[in-house]
């Protein structure tokens, strides 16, 4: 048992988790399209989200890890059949090599598990499936175009539900995208023939999740490995694997001062860590490194909630605050919006965590990150409209004069 008792140990633990996520180095996975593919294969999934206050979450997650990434690259990964869309703990881009591990959930939905819709129109689903079989891929937009004045076979809402149910059951896959307009095709026409499509056993699935989380998080717990997965047998299998690993000395336990326990590969805590230049990264609220809020608070002491779902009067930090990662600490959050028509990034609020010192290195790192973030948002100016007076805000005001 490793006892995490002092500041240095806590710092090392944070660096282990960030290194596993590819967030300590600027080019951990390479750059461009190949870097994006390496990144998603390593971290296991990239969550999809429709909120567009700034560039969408799945693009943002890649941007935080892959130099020279552009949003069109996610479409290319999908078109090249290197990734597929399905449900992880949420809608996500998943490496095609992990396809077989989507099958248990699809099988459960086919056998009555409710995902979105309780009552499915099987006749409509069969008709849609036959149409795609005969006429080829179908866009969700095609359903909308075929809407009629009276409810009927092609009424948009039932047809859209039927299409999504076919997708969740695994009969259809997303074969391409135009923005957020999905194109669906038969699974057998989308899935590369070389991909393993055999149903995994519960133990195989549990082992896959454990290996994936050890790889992309470094420090794991049963709760984290089975995050939002409600399969009781799977949870038991993961718990058993963790216990077996500790008992046979391939894994070892860590205990924080709070009493919380985690597991990591034996010897991993003592391995040397890279020491790159300190940089500041602006993360997505849906980033793999921050999406498990309890874990985030436990390991980083960072209490985070996305507030777009909170009534305006109850928000503390803003509608869409982005976590700010500096070196190995989460140092603040920034509420901002990209005004795309005028190519301007508006920073509505900037909050630093208690005790964070705004030294010259932090200010310089923040300015560099804002410059990159503006470019990513296709903005050529930045304006700060908040009221907090600090060095970072002054730096922003100076930066806006230079863009």
In short:
The chain is α+β, with helices and mostly antiparallel strands.
Question: How would you sum up this structure, described in words?
Answer:
Mean pLDDT is 91; it is low at 146-155. With 403 residues, the chain is an alpha+beta fold. The longest helix is centred in the C-terminal third of the chain and has 17 residues, at 360-376. Among the domains are: 114-191, Orthogonal Bundle (Arc Repressor Mutant, subunit A); 305-402. Strands 10-11-12-13-14 form a five-stranded mixed beta sheet, covered by helices on one side. A three-stranded mixed beta sheet has the order 1-8-9, covered by helices on one side. Helices cover 40% and strands 18% of the residues. Helix 1 (7-20) packs across helix 10 (202-217), helix 2 (32-43) packs across helix 4 and helix 14 (360-376) crosses helix 15. It is built from 15 helices and 14 strands.
């Amino acid at each position: 048992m490793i006892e995490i008792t002092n500041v240095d140990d806590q710092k090392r633990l944070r660096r282990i988790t960030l290194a596993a996520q590819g967030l300590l180095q600027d080019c951990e996975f390479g750059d461009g399209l190949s870097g994006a593919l390496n990144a998603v294969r390593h971290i296991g999934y990239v969550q999809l989200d429709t909120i567009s206050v700034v560039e969408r979450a799945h693009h943002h997650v890649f941007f935080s890890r892959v130099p020279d990434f552009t949003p069109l690259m996610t479409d290319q990964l999908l078109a090249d059949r290197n990734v597929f869309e399905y449900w992880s703990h949420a809608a996500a881009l998943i490496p095609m090599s992990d396809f077989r591990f989507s099958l248990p959930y699809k099988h459960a939905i086919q056998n009555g598990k409710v995902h979105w819709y309780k009552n499915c129109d099987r006749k409509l689903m069969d008709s849609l499936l036959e149409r795609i079989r005969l006429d080829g891929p179908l866009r969700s937009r095609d359903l909308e175009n075929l809407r009629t004045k009276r409810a009927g076979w092609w009424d948009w809402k039932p047809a859209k539900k039927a299409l999504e149910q076919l997708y969740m059951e695994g009969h259809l896959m997303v074969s391409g995208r135009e923005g957020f307009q999905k194109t669906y095709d038969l699974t057998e026409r989308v899935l590369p023939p070389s991909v393993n499509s055999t149903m995994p056993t519960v133990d195989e699935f549990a082992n896959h999740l454990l290996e994936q989380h050890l790889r992309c998080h470094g420090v794991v717990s049963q709760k984290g490995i089975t995050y939002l997965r409600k399969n009781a047998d799977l949870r038991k299998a993961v718990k058993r694997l963790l216990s077996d690993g500790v008992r046979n000395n391939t894994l070892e336990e860590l205990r924080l001062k709070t009493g919380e326990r985690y597991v990591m590969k034996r010897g991993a805590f003592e391995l040397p860590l890279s020491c790159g230049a300190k940089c500041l990264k602006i993360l997505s609220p849906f980033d793999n490194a921050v999406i498990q809020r309890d874990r985030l608070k436990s390991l980083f002491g960072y209490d985070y909630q996305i507030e777009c779902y909170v009534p305006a009067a109850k928000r503390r930090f803003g509608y869409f605050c982005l976590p700010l990662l500096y070196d190995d600490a989460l140092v603040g959050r920034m509420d901002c919006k990209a005004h795309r028509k005028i190519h301007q990034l508006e920073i509505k609020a900037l909050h630093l965590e208690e005790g964070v010192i705004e030294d010259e290195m932090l200010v310089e790192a923040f300015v560099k990150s804002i410059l990159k973030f503006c470019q990513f948002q296709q903005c050529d100016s930045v304006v700060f409209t908040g009221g907090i007076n600090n060095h970072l805000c002054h730096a922003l005001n100076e930066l806006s004069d230079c863009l």
